[in-house]
Amino acid sequence: MKGRIAIIDDDVLVRQSLGDCMESAGYAVESFDSAEEFLASGSARKAACLILDIQLPGITGLELQERLAGADNRLPIVFVSARGTQANREKALSRGATGFLSKPFRRDDLVRLVEAATHP
Fold it and tell me: How far, rounded to the nearest angstrom, does the alpha carbon of residue 30 sit from its chain's CA centroid?
């Protein structure tokens, strides 16, 4: 295994698809339907990279990114979003996200970004 990838998306089908993609690329996967569930799990300390949706119920993807940075957690983050506005993209990247993909995207693009994040 190349490392553990945490996936947070409130859509179960998207989580499964992202998980299948990452497992086929050789990663172990943990999936969560909310930022709160992810934070409670302790996976922020174990994951090699986080694939994170922008629009989540409760704590949003951008809010989670801010919380992790505030806790001095430098977990690489690749954002994926159906609402990939330019403002969200700029905000995420300016705060240190490794990448930002708008749904739908090519699986190869996601794998490339995760590879870059986990093997800098």
Answer: 11
